[in-house]
Amino acid sequence: MYYEFLEDIAQTNGLRNVNSAVKVLLGLGCILISVSSNSFIAPLFISISLSLIIILLAKINPGLYLKLLSVPLGFALTSIIVILFLRNSGEVIFSLPVLNTFILTITSGSINESVLVLSRLSGGMCSLYFLALTTPMTEMFLLAKKIHVPDVFIDLSMIIYRFIFVLIEEAGQIYSAQTMRLGYGNFKESINTFGMMAGSLFINSWNKGENLINAMETRCYDGKFAMLEETPDFSISNLLLVIIFLTAVFTISYLTSEISFLGDVLS
Amino acid sequence: MSTILELKNIKYKYPNGPEALKGINFRIDKGEKIAIVGANGAGKSTLLLMLNGMLKPDSGDILFTGEIFRYDRKNLRELRRKVGFVFQNPDTQIIAPTVYQDVAFGPVNLGYSDDKVRSSVKEALSYVGMSGFERRPPHQLSGGEKKRVAMAGILAMNPDILVFDEPTSALDPAGSEDVMELLDEMHISGKTIIISTHDVELAYPWADRVVLMQGGRVLTEGTPDDVFHNKSLVKSAKLSIPVLLELYESLIERGMESSKRLPKSVLDFVHLLERDLYEDLKIKYGKIHLIDADNIEVGNISQYITKNRISSIGAMGSKAKLMAEIEKIELDFTYGVIDKCLLKAMNKKDSLIITNGGMIKRVNERVKCFNEESKRNVEIIEFKKE
Amino acid sequence: MSTILELKNIKYKYPNGPEALKGINFRIDKGEKIAIVGANGAGKSTLLLMLNGMLKPDSGDILFTGEIFRYDRKNLRELRRKVGFVFQNPDTQIIAPTVYQDVAFGPVNLGYSDDKVRSSVKEALSYVGMSGFERRPPHQLSGGEKKRVAMAGILAMNPDILVFDEPTSALDPAGSEDVMELLDEMHISGKTIIISTHDVELAYPWADRVVLMQGGRVLTEGTPDDVFHNKSLVKSAKLSIPVLLELYESLIERGMESSKRLPKSVLDFVHLLERDLYEDLKIKYGKIHLIDADNIEVGNISQYITKNRISSIGAMGSKAKLMAEIEKIELDFTYGVIDKCLLKAMNKKDSLIITNGGMIKRVNERVKCFNEESKRNVEIIEFKKE
Amino acid sequence: MHIMEGFLPSPWWQIWWILALPCLVYGLYKLKKLLDENRELLPLLGVAGGFIFVLSALKLPSVTGSCSHPTGTALSAITFGPWITCVIGFIVLLFQSLFLAHGGITTLGANVMSMAIIGPVAGYFVYKALDKINFNFFASIFIAAFICDIVTYCITSLELALAFPATSGGFLPSLAAYLGVFAVTQIPLAIIEGLVFVVIFKYIIIL
Lengths: 267, 386, 386, 207
Description:
Chain A is mainly α. In chain A, 67% of the residues lie in helices and 5% in strands. Helix content of chain D is 77%, strand content 0%.
């Protein structure tokens, strides 16, 4: 149970010092183009180019990145089955009678749509990974402040952020201690052991909350939180590059909007 | 001595972290007292977590009773039963709602019968001197008490090897002494003990073998004398030299004659200075009285003390201390008892040690050894039932 | 010396808890270094929490700059600005997601202007040697680094009194030394420092005044010599005697002549033994060179070292250490520097101390005092720009 | 059960965002009012949020491939009420998508609706109702947590089915299909969570 958060990787990535607004623009831009694309080509292009950026420029370990790409796989495969069998149009490619009551069919239309949804998912996830792996949350708080997200939301997020890491470490230690004493043996014990860990963590959290009140009071808390200083290295050329890239992707998406995987036009 | 656990060229890197172990070779023999010393971040805790399979090395082999260890469920259970691990912070280890339930956690998971669970818990709690605390919630205990409960939780599983990560951290002097004495007791009863610490004052007099770590590597290992005598290595491990050793070396530098054995305690030091400086002094020494707590009835100790005009009293072990408490005897020494009594003897004063079991033998051995080395003759008088 | 804070017959009981303070009288003068020592549960932390109004006494008065303190919002803010409190565990103190934001927390809430916030944070971080860590999240820092950030967070508010609860707990020797040296630096720059600790080895040589607590009461207070000399009181506070003092007393008991000043360091001890034993030795001493880091250009130190055949080098203060790092000079001493150089001088070896500001004066004073007491003549050579 | 980034097409992701936003805004308004009265609640809520994140990030025993689960938000709903939970849940889900790649940005609206609003609210009301009729405490806890999970899973299926209705028969067959394929993991998960929840409360109450 040693947790690896993308945030920790982001803190040391190769694009750490690029202005965060530019990175967020690229990430969100790609997500939006990807999700509104009518063809699988633009999302696929986004997947490939952002993956290259993540590996080559942000210098994320390729093995680790591959592992990350498998995270959404379970969800993607189960959800795509429904589309594959229920969104039928065009010619039938495969059919399977079930218990003589109904027939499961896959058609060219459903394959086209499945491929499109999968490619959007892939484009979307790669963009999300780009955001998560290159732009630490600590920098995003400043961005949120700049676009006037309400203070109470940012302040609360910052405290939550801080305590996620304090508590996850504690949870890891409790889990180790339980494992060493052979907890999590059978199902019943597992439930019990896990519940005890969660309960203990809850009580510890409560105590930490009360300590935090004290810590803030000793430092004259008056309802204000400091924000991080701006990164000095905002560069126009980076911004221009991102705008050019997004325009190119958008153009690809527009030009290829009629193309589908098996060549049929979607009905 | 047979080797129980052996690490061969172990390497380990935390995911997305630095390389924590860079090729460790390390061996644990039965019955040893090993201190792994190093600064924070030297890799001590990572090494300890290898010993009971909580971390799996990236490369290298772990040999458990001579065979290469395989990380399957059955083997892991076996290893964890044999190698007990006491965490630095008891708060993450003892989380059950009551002391009893916490100590019973391991035995229940081992599948012991109800009777055996009950007896294991009882025995473990009495061992650490926490009988009577069964129904208390752990969060109401003091830091030292929590540490003892954590130890009981591991002892109840009856492991052969006990691993302690920073056993005295956050404890005050009295608490630390209690814990260190418990470690000694466990050692005497046949357990192999491994501690990790950055407290050199603690490791120096305690350990049989010291392993000095720095940056994921073992810099050197050997007897405490050998390791701490190598000043530049200790310094490169970002540790300090034990203060008595520092004083000794300053004196050597100033021309004092060096001695075979380095001074580990105030007694050693006094003895060293005397050898050097007061060589011709002839003094009559005090005696050390020794009472076996298993062999005397409650009530008779005070009587013995009055009769024999004893000036200082020390007790070793939970049973002896308990008896002293019952008889309302105020104890002068509860830690480093033998050495302190020897010091008293050199000052012509009689003292009494109350203890039991294997520690009786230990007192005799220590005094004999002291007499031989210093060519003195401090006498032990063992209490005999009439 | 003017009294800043005074506690008069303070009593306090935790809700549903035991009585933690049973009538405390206690006074803090400007510029003091006070160590509150006691076992766990003696009431040290509770007492500290009184000092900046985190707890309100059940009875008794707190006098702040001579007036009885009133617990209203405005006064509390003022008190907390003046009395900075550094928690034992930095994880409970660090609030914000980055080092910069955390250190800026106090200044922002004090309503400083943006510029002033920026400069306070910058200064505080450079003071504790954590410049360059501004954008790092606290959970990626080591224990020692977190401790420094916690200290910077308080320093940025520029308090007059700094209160540290167990400043070195869980730190390894190097980390502890760094922290203790920071405390000394703060003290020299005019702050009043109060620490609580159960580490007698730490408190004994460091403090101007020691307050011994036990069971919610002050057992005694006074100079470290007075307090720790009273063995039975220290014992009843469940603390141990510093090891050098213990050795000293064992030797006194054996007939060594007692000295005016108790030995606090290895140097003191060597000096004491020599006075007693090697009185007629006539030795030529080594010299101590002294470089003011504010007064030398980078690059010139190495040159000076080669020219003057210096055998050991020590640095005091962050600036001096930084300069040594830039010039890649390996430092032999980073803590207890003056004493260690004196020890070298007694062994006929020349050493160099690099430091700056008020600590220059301190070196001169300490050496002068040493020369007077020991009737020796260790010479200081101050570097002068040509 | 999170919907991954890119899975929901237009206009559905926008619709769920539009539905979630007013809840968030109202939650923030309530929160601000609460904090104006008592500022000390902010640190407590912050730590509670950290706890909820951590609880949902821990892998439940015996369930392979399960990612996050909504137990934490149900706990929050019972402790702080549904509106505050909506804000905390929103932040936690945002962090989950960025720290663990569970969920996404465009799908955040849909995930917030199912996991931070409707699920917890259902759990909350079930708990309140059972509490009112003095039902056995631990049984109520189990049922509330179970319902919270099941409702979350139903809403997620509903969101997916609305976005991808079957060509023949429309919405209902699709809903049935989604409920079907996710039942394999989600129903055992709901039972386990109910049990874990009971243990947690037993633990908290004993202490």
